[in-house]
Amino acid sequence: MFVLVNLKTYPCDPVAVADAVRDVDESTDARLAVAPQAADLARVAETGVETWAQHVDPIEHGSNTGHTLAESVADAGAVGTLINHSERRLKLADIDGSVRAAERAGLETVVCANNPEQIGAAAALGPDAVAVEPPELIGTGTPVSQADPDIVEDAVEAADNVDSEVSVLCGAGISTGDDVVAAGDLGAEGVLLASGVAKADDPQAALEDLVDPL
Ligand SMILES: O=C(CO)COP(=O)(O)O
């Protein structure tokens, strides 16, 4: 299972969480990575943890003030990027452009979507993976894999119908190892989570619990 920890703009220490993710990654067969804010990418990557961006823009080098260039993200040490997170929604053409920009820079891609219908559309754009995250469950601590298992199974089927090479992650409310196991049982190849680690008193203990049954 792939466990991707999105730090959003939570007031945690990104380097401390990165150290914890790296250490727990070394103790498990699961694949762990962390997605800090763009401004923190380089110092997070320096910890040696697998580092992801939260977003890249559908642009090239040039006059694009205030944008995030995929090449700069890669130069900072990221190996992948989220695209179209529920809190960073893009138009369809811009999702496509961001996937192409990420590919150009050699970044792995996870395109997020709200529901199975959008997952099918996202899979058609040819990312490495898609992630279904029902917005109403994000940040609630109520895990999608238990509160809405159908959405995960339907997302897996929707992606498979379009492109069986595209992996499916799920996210929203995931905070325990049981939640991750439930996601895997529904066909997800990984989970995307945030508050369960970024807002935990002890992020390392939270991570250890997440991977314990894997
Ligand atoms: O948005 C999410 C991950 O990208 C999910 O957030 P929570 O894990 O806080 O529900």
TrEMBL record:
InterPro entries recorded: Aldolase_TIM (IPR013785), TIM_sf (IPR035990), Triosephosphate_isomerase (IPR000652), Triosephosphate_isomerase_arc (IPR022891), Triosephosphate_isomerase_AS (IPR020861)
Catalytic class of the enzyme: isomerase
Listed PROSITE patterns: TIM_1, TIM_2
One annotated Gene Ontology cellular component of this protein: cytoplasm
Alphabetical keyword list: Cytoplasm, Gluconeogenesis, Glycolysis, Isomerase
CDD domains registered for this protein in UniProt: TIM
GO BP annotations, alphabetical order: gluconeogenesis; glycolytic process
Subcellular localization(s) per the UniProt record: Cytoplasm
This protein's record includes keyword Ribonucleoprotein: no
UniProt GO MF annotations: triose-phosphate isomerase activity
Active site location: H85 (electrophile), E133 (proton acceptor)
Keyword ATP-binding appears in the UniProt entry: no
Catalytic reaction annotation: D-glyceraldehyde 3-phosphate = dihydroxyacetone phosphate
Annotated Pfam families: TIM
EC nos: 5.3.1.1
Involved pathway(s): Carbohydrate biosynthesis; gluconeogenesis; Carbohydrate degradation; glycolysis; D-glyceraldehyde 3-phosphate from glycerone phosphate: step 1/1
Binding-site list for substrate: N6, L7, K8, I138, G173, A194, S195
Origin: domain of life: Archaea
Entry similarity comment: Belongs to the triosephosphate isomerase family.
Subunit: Homotetramer; dimer of dimers.
Function statement: Involved in the gluconeogenesis. Catalyzes stereospecifically the conversion of dihydroxyacetone phosphate (DHAP) to D-glyceraldehyde-3-phosphate (G3P).
HAMAP family according to UniProt: TIM_A
Protein name stated in the entry: Triosephosphate isomerase
Gene: tpiA
